[in-house]
Amino acid sequence: MKMLVFNSTSDGEKEVSEGETALKDKIDDLLEDEALHGAMAGVSIRHADSGEVVYERNAHLRLTPASNTKLFTGAAALETLGPEYVFTTELWTDGDMDDPTLNGNLYLRGKGDPTLTAKDLASMAAFLREKGIKEITGDVIADDTWYDNIRLSDGIQWSQESEYYASQVSALTVSPDQDYDAGTVMIRVSPANKEGQPATIEVTPDNEYVEIVNRTKTVKSKKDDELKVERKHGTNTIIVQGAMETDEPVSESWIAVFEPTGLVSELFHQSLVKEGIRVQGSHTKIAETPEEATRLYEHSSMALKELFLPFMKLSNNGHAEVLVKEMGKVIHDEGSWDKGLDVIGTEMRRLGVNMDTVQLNDGSGMSATNFIPAHEISQLLFQVQEKEWFPEFRRSLPVAGNKERFVGGTLRDRMQGTEALENVRAKTGTLTGVSSLSGYVTTKAGDPLIFAMVFNHFLAEDVDEIEDQLAIILSEHQFSVRK
């Protein structure tokens, strides 16, 4: 009979000797950490080649996984939509073009692209000008009906609504930068040159859709008067208050806007004006594009496999929720959370996940009422290895300790100087009292493992160190064979 024994020494494979620690004992000791007293921990570790369970503790306990939910959303999206899938934004008209006039309405139709920028909208306006259009006799109408009009996923509290990670979901939305935090604006605050003067505030993209209330002051020493940037509930009034010291660096904040479709309308109208195109009618209407309309232009996003880098590396919540609605639209012709989550459930069952033990209420993990056992997370990570799109899925996972933002992602500052460095590829997850880390690691002897760990109800600020130590244990040790 052969038995695998975990070797905790660093001198290579040896005969089993007194003092050698088995895998179970090693991890059990770690999970006795004081930070986990009174908390709940679910851990599942498998051989990546066979799926055989190496270690489990409370692995069938349903726990809130935070952003480990994105593993389920991401796998379902790659299976349903495919790595080459693109989102589009289109221009349509119900009129006719009589150079230099477009007689009728112009429709800006959004189909979920979370990477659309003000620059892309400017390109659309430039296209119209290149076609000789100088005037639109009707309205410029925004069409966001590709998805339903429910803007926030389950579990987001009103106090979080101005946070970039809780941005509203619209089929027609815009991102301020290359992180593609759709439905947000970036607020840059700089100290004035003189004490007593208000700070300078810049908004990206520049627009009049949001109103800035500047309650700041530049001071020599601000003491406890920290800078705060918040959007007033139910409005697009962004209040910036607090103090900045004269030599303080620029502060950058990303704030979610209220009803992001309106921001796109504002920015597109700005672009039309810059191109010298006059709109006789309204530019603030929102309505569905009529069936008899003619398509004039189509802008495509990057492929889904490229979108997966900001989505998974940076744990972008907005991307997750867009993918949920997109799957619902593509499969059930309804861009809603209900239909999208149905698709995720169906695809997970096909992958061998026991969805009878899983509850999902969103695609990002923001909901505290998402429940997934660690056993099912490791099962998913095992099964996806057989998929053609697995290389894209694996590439999207943060790489421990890699300082490149779109490589290391949320793990770029963790597990430095260990065998886990550039070895562990895993998805993080964080909410108050919730932390998770699940992914892939290769042991020192070259054995590929899958791990999933989910912690709930801890009172410590975080349990990152415990997660890291568990991953390091797996990376630094090796299996020996005892006959």
UniProtKB/TrEMBL annotation:
Alphabetized UniProt keyword annotations: Carboxypeptidase, Hydrolase, Protease
This enzyme's EC code(s): 3.4.16.4
A biological process from GO: peptidoglycan metabolic process
GO molecular function: serine-type D-Ala-D-Ala carboxypeptidase activity
Pfam families recorded: Peptidase_S13 (PF02113)
Stated family: Belongs to the peptidase S13 family.
Database matches in NCBIfam families: PBP4 (TIGR00666)
This protein's name: D-alanyl-D-alanine carboxypeptidase/D-alanyl-D-alanine-endopeptidase
Gene behind the chain: dacB
